[in-house]
From TrEMBL:
Cited InterPro entries: Ada-like_dom_sf, Ada_DNA_repair_Zn-bd, HTH_AraC
Protein name per Swiss-Prot or TrEMBL: Methylated-DNA--protein-cysteine methyltransferase
Domain of life, source organism: Bacteria
SMART domains per the UniProt record, alphabetical: HTH_ARAC (SM00342)
Biological process according to GO: DNA repair; methylation
One Gene Ontology MF term: sequence-specific DNA binding
Species this protein is from: Frigidibacter mobilis
Length: 205
């Protein structure tokens, strides 16, 4: 009887330790560029490890294996090191739409807006899901939600945060907030749980 050996399981790809990654960030080591990314909790920005901006404190750093993981965790791309540049250069719709989103983060996007820019909405959905694990419209909603989080972090009322985030429905705002942070909006007024949505300046760390 012939016995067929089962193939050995593939080892999951893992990042180096946080200490190694932080040292690479401080040194701007190109060896890990594109293989790991840092999310800075004090600014809400994520960067390449070779970013030229002032380096954050270690306690403000979270490390990720991909831009998609950074986006899913609620961070936005740095405007200095452009961590989405490889994806954007490979796909014109990603380049155009991410640039439009940064130019007007409070805009309430619809599929018709995407089509008006000359892109097929279904193609855009596939491209963004493939690269970032979310659609462009989901990315835009998340970006608006951060505006509301910043309002709460500054001590604003929940209703003010809701409108700043572009939500007409209080229930929809609470649900979106809970999905991203795992907390209710009213528990975050004036607290650091919203800190990562604060300054958009890459140097403010």
């Amino acid at each position: 009887m012939t016995h067929h050996l089962a193939p050995a399981p593939l080892l999951a790809l893992t990042l180096p330790s946080a200490e190694v990654l932080y040292a690479a960030l401080l040194a701007r080591d190109p060896a890990l560029d594109g293989r790991a990314y840092v999310g800075v909790t004090s600014t809400g920005i994520f960067c390449r490890l070779t970013c030229p901006a002032r380096k954050p404190l270690r306690q403000n750093c979270r490390f990720f294996a991909s831009p998609a993981e950074c986006l899913a965790a609620g961070f936005r791309p740095c405007l200095r090191c452009h961590p989405l540049a490889p994806e954007a250069s490979a796909d014109p719709c990603i380049a155009a739409l991410t640039a439009a989103l940064e130019a007007d983060p409070a805009r309430r996007w619809r599929e018709g807006d995407v089509a008006a820019m000359g892109f097929d909405p279904s193609t855009v959905r596939r491209s963004f899901r493939r690269q970032f694990g979310m659609t462009f419209l989901e990315m835009a909603r998340q970006r608006r939600l951060r505006e509301g989080m910043a309002t709460l972090a500054a001590g604003g009322r929940v209703i003010e945060a809701q409108f700043d985030a572009g939500f007409d429905s209080p229930a929809a705002f609470r649900a979106a907030f809970a999905r991203l942070l795992g907390r209710r909006p009213q528990t975050c007024r004036g607290t650091h749980c919203c800190r990562r949505t604060g300054s958009t300046r890459p140097s403010a760390r």
